[in-house]
Amino acid sequence: MDAMDEYVDGLPNICGQEDVVAQAIAAGREPRAFDGVDLAHAGSGFAVALHMHQPLIPAGGQDLQSAAVISNLAWMMDHPDQGDNHNAPVFAECYKRMGEFVPQLLERGLAPRVMLDYSGTLLHGMRQMGRHDVFDALVRITRDDPWRGAVEWLGSTWGHAVAPSTPVQDFRLHVRAWQHHFAAIFGTEALGRVRGFSPAEMALPNQPDVAYEFVRTLVECGYEWVLVQEHTVERPDGSAVDRPHLPHRLTCTSSRGETATITAIVKTQGSDTKLVGQMQPYYEAKGLAPLQLGGRMVPPLVTQIADGENGGVMMNEFPPKYFDVIAESSGSSTPALNVSEYLEGLAALGVAPADLPPIQPAGQHRVWDRLTPGEGPERLREVIDQLSGEDGGFHMDGGSWTNNISWVSGYDSVLAPMQRASALFNERFLTAGVPSSDPAYRRALFYLLACETSCYRYWGQGIWTDYGAELARRAIEACEVA
Fold it and tell me: From its phi and psi, is residue 130 left (phi > 0), alpha (psi between -120 and 50) or beta?
């Protein structure tokens, strides 16, 4: 398979080798034999994922419009006296430490497991900072036996873009860009083993047409399962998910009647960093027993994801607790598992995709009570307007970590330039059929994906929205001069 350079024309490799990426993913979709996985003798299991992200910001200089684009982590390092920036060196070590923890535990004869989710902006920023030690540690546990068997990487959007408010064509560009960048760093064989997807901010679209495109993109980009937040999904009748520790089938239908479906793993609600930092999934799993699925008794899986570096509990409490729990769970009836090995274990027990209970994005049952698939986008807009008028709490902005954050309302100052950048990129490059290997395409794409990072909305007004608007301005400029 073709080798991929990590940098092309001074920018991270985020496009231009779609054929190599597709071949790598196809080659990695054969069933795998996971060492030590015997679900027939497990009572339950637990899985933890660590989410790592830092945005890129135009802060490498005094003037916003000419400042170099650097990692927010680099800015924190250079300004340790502001806010909690003194934590920056600890954050950097957190990005590296699983590359040290996993080998140490394996050398003790234990069975560690961990899933890793790193944004593309974080990876580029760390490389730009010269933190090659971080990459050396991560490459070892990603490529080499026996360590790679304990680690599962999750796909993400390159710029940590939230799906509900990212134009669907851009969302696909983010997904593909992350695959490019990951393969360039860790190798195409490693990319072939990335089967699950972790949405930025756990944001799941619930507007039917956007939700359909979300799942369609994941499936067409080769993903086999997606992580979803418990309160962002519902059963087809609108009721809550009743057995969240079993895999489900996320099914999304568009207003035109098209349907896309993918396996969904439900992350249950709770204080995420505390749950993972104190390894609560293991203790919850110990109290569970096998459940019936597809006519077979199977072990449930308690799954949680949290920021891997953010907060005192993750910086300080997680490492010793992780070591203690892995020591206690190894060889027990409640083992640590990664999701893909769990799903293949279920398949070995005879569980088929059709056996998984269906779910859909929250709120859609109210739409389908009034809309028949196939009636089209205009009728969908009418139904959404009707429901919004009748119930001020109804919305189709999607769901996320919490119910009180919208990724759309109140962000016109940053969304307007982002949407302008997106429209221009679509016009100048996608519609015009410019090859993705073109340097102008790559440069414009870099700024477009960087400006769509969720951080520019999460923190509201002020310098963060200024950063987002400036990156969008650079994306617009890159499109106009192309």
Answer: left
56-60 and 45-52 beta bridge pairing: unpaired
Half-sphere exposure of 383 (CA within 13 A, CB side): 21
Statement: residue 4 has pLDDT above 90: yes
Q: Cite the beta strand spans of 175-286 per DSSP E.
A: 196-197, 225-229, 233-234, 248-253, 259-267
Angle between helix axes 208-220 and 168-186 (nearest 10 degrees) is 30
Please say whether the dihedral angle defined by the alpha carbons of residues 453, 195, 221 and 21, taken in this order, is positive or negative: positive
The 10s digit of each residue's pLDDT in 19-70 is: 999 999 999 887 776 666 788 889 999 999 999 999 999 999 999 999 999 9
The answer on pLDDT for 108 being more than 70 is yes
Task: Kindly report the number of other CB atoms within 10 A of residue 64's CB atom.
Answer: 15
Q: How far is CA 306 from the centre of its chain?
A: 11
DSSP per-residue codes, 287-355: T---EEETTEEE--EEEEEEESSSSHIIIIIHHHHHHHHHHHHTTSSS-B--HHHHHHHHHHTT--GGG
DSSP 283: H
In Å, how far are 17, 158, 179, 192, 301 from 188, measured between CA atoms? 11, 17, 9, 6, 29
The DSSP output letter for 263 is E
DSSP code for 58: E
Under 8 Å between Cβ of 407 and 291: no
- Is residue 179 within 8 A of residue 142, CB to CB? The reply is no
CA distances from 141 to 89, 99, 148, 196, 413 (A): 22, 6, 5, 18, 42
Other CB atoms within 10 A of residue 261 CB: 18
Full strand arrangement of the beta sheet holding 301-307: 233-234, 358-361, 248-253, 259-267, 225-229, 196-197, 151-155, 114-118, 45-52, 301-307
Query: For residue 220, what are its two tokens?
Result: 């067409």
What is the DSSP secondary-structure string of 351-404? --GGGSPEEEETTHHHHHTT--TTS-HHHHHHHHHHHHHH-TT---S-B-SSTT
DSSP characters over 115-166: EEEE-HHHHHHHHHTT-HHHHHHHHHHHHSTTGGGGEEEEE--TT---GGGS
Spatial contact of 218 and 55, defined as CB atoms under 8 Å apart: no
Domain ranges of the chain: 18-359, 410-482
Q: What is the DSSP letter of 193?
A: T
Q: What is the reported pTM?
A: 0.95
Q: What pLDDT, on the 0 to 100 scale, is given for residue 393?
A: 84
Structure tokens at 226: 């997606």
DSSP 35: T
Structure tokens at 175: 């997904």
Quick one: pLDDT band at residue 413, thresholds 50, 70, 90?
Answer: low
CATH architecture, range 18-359: Alpha-Beta Barrel (3.20)
Gap between the Cα atoms of 115 and 150, Å rounded? 9
